[in-house]
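Sample intake sheet
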Amino acid sequence: MSITKFEPDTKYSYRDYLRWNDDQRWELIDGIPHNMTPAPSTKHQIILRELLVEFAVYLRGKPCEVFGAPFDVRLSASEQNEEIFNVVQPDISVVCDKKKIDEKGCKGAPDLIVEILSPSTAKKDKATKKKLYETYGVKEYWVLDPLNENIEVFVLNEAKYGESQIYGKDDQLKVSIFEDLTIDLDSIFGKE
């Protein structure tokens, strides 16, 4: 079915989501559809590319996989499509349990998620998605701000995100889920 309008007070499931064929990217959060930003900025794409390369090179020959958007992450305790109400497309997902990966994306929480802010997604990424990722057990969540060239990192500890750590362009970011991965952020944000 072609989606142009959603019914108010209707909770949509992953089963509904799979039927939408309107050539737009959507996320579901608590059954509410959210249209994705259609065209990320060039800076967003450069940062995304550089981070994907860092993770891909590091993970070569290791059991974890890295995926860039669009890549559906289904956050639910259920395997039934009609009972899944949270489907997100993080900019980057790192998944270390291969049983979670299928042809449609990831079923369950990735180990690490990166969201790159844009003006239209900042509030959702910083509040709504942070809570969602915490609830479903994403071990490490990065909120990357391309405008201010920093990354806010949340690490799950006893089912809650602790106080965030903020890293700037000149910092080295130690990835908590990997013992020996440190990323030079100057190489991610690029030289002016």
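Comment: The longest strand covers residues 150-157. Residues 67 and 93 are 5 Å apart (CA to CA).
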